[in-house]
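User: I'm putting together a teaching handout on how multi-component assemblies are represented. Below are the sequence lines for each component of a complex, exactly as they appear in our records. Could you produce the 3D structure of the whole assembly as structure tokens, so the students can see both representations side by side? Please keep the chain order the same as the input.
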Amino acid sequence: MTTRRLPVFILADVSGSMQGTPIESVKAGIRQLHRDLLGDPQAIESAYLSILTFGNSAQQVVPLTEVAMFNPPELTASGTTNFGDGLRLLLESFDRELVRTTADVKGDWRPLVFILSDGAPTDVDWPMYAQQLRERRPANIIAVACGDQADVNVLKQVTDNVILMQEMSPDAFRAFFSFVSASVKQTSQKVGAVADGSSITLPPPPPGITIVP
Amino acid sequence: MSEPDTAAVNDMLPAEPMPPVEEVPVTAALLSVAAPVVEPPRTAVWEVNEPMQPWCPPEFADSVRQAIGETAFDALLAQLAHERGQHVRVGAWHVTGALRRGRRHAHVAAFNEDALFLHANDARGVMVVADGAGSAPFSRLGSAVAVEIIGTALRGSDTLSEAALQHAVMRAVAALQAIATAANVPARALRTTVLVAAWEPSPVGTRVLTTQVGDGALVIMHHDGRITRPSAGDAGDWSGEVHCFLPDSETLAFAKKACVELDVPDMAALLLVTDGVDDALYPFPRFAPAVLGQLVHGADSPLDGLSAQSVTPSLLTAASPGDTLLAWLGFEKRGENDDRTLAVALHHTASTIIPPWAPSPSA
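Assistant: Of course. Below is the structure of the complete assembly, with chains in the same order as your input.
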């Protein structure tokens, strides 16, 4: 018998426009998230974190790792916004790392994915992967449009759950990662199947972060 | 768990006008967040906290009282312990049930969302267990009302039949919908699973009637050690996802599909568990012989895959079988901290039929 996991993926934009305060804030936020989850016994026993990034290309900086063994990564920002490669890598990670329920094995909790982007894609393949994510519904995906240059319409093609972080300030990122932490803490519970639209219940977003209808 | 301050993403507020983006330099405060360090792995520390809100909020009290009756309502309030064991010995059967608040709910000061109904006399036995959906803020009321209505209906039914079972489920659905309406909350706020088993003597042995809506497991052990599962639990690709709860509109269709009426000539045990047990011991039918071995003969070491388990005596000989089962439900497994409920009917010959459990040599 294995431990049932709550997989949490953070797919972060590390293109050149994220240089400076934004990327430092993302790194600080991931450290804050990690520390916060270490204070929650259910998260220690079930939450697993993975960090993926996309710039010129995508990479999985940290594979799915239990919270107690997770080390917040060093991230640097440069290059273009190859959003499609990020989505492709996310789908590959799902196939490689997630466990679904079978007659013999209890599967993971439905994964939580947070996608952060501050700009518009520079690649042409992203719609294909966005469509795959929508069709396969492999996770509860929350996309975060960071600042006024983020393309909300692109994120809406990946998921209905898009939130807007108006400012890219350290406080805004800190509030966002607190929201992520609270979401993780209340996610591993029984819900209706995703078909009825009730599979995700999240905490109210903090001030400065709004829901894109 | 009552979480009135939570909001579904789909119900989120409209976007506010976007203020201009402000350039913020990398500051000392920002960088003061600790740099990555390799810390030793931490272990979970669980607290036990009491809920701050009433189990039955005032806006629900009248309608719940009306749904299940004054006496049952008072009894529910009186036995609102987070942990409870029950036992009835009648004729050939030892009927025992227990429910235990999970560590996760205890840590966050939430109520036990499981519920249990037991009845047994010479003519009939009824066991009902239910597990309120974690995503439904008043599911503790939903599960309590559902087991009470279904259990009481089957206890008092003239005949034990599929029609009687369907009628009982239908009454529970109607009651939950009425309670939701009276309290001005969506019916889904009361969502709960339910597993039902009723039995009575028959010319060939025991007539058993079962159904379930949602997850959890229900198994029968026969004299030759075979385990049969009348209906499969509802499960999706991912943990914790089911397709239907009470009082969803599809409840009756699911209950009807899962309804099974059997004449069992050789029933040694009948066992119902909510997902707090089923998920920790998955797939449950494979673990059922070991679980029954422990319940019938006592447990002196943890089942395979469990990290800790209390030493407990046999339910058949324990001074307090309900408390014994409650102690048995306190087993520990990493990540499995949900509420747990188990109800079991053991034939008095079970100790000669069901072998004791022993750890596997590789454990």
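A couple of points students might notice: Chain B touches chain A through 73 residues (CB under 8 Å). Confidence is low (pLDDT under 50) at residues 1-38 of chain B.
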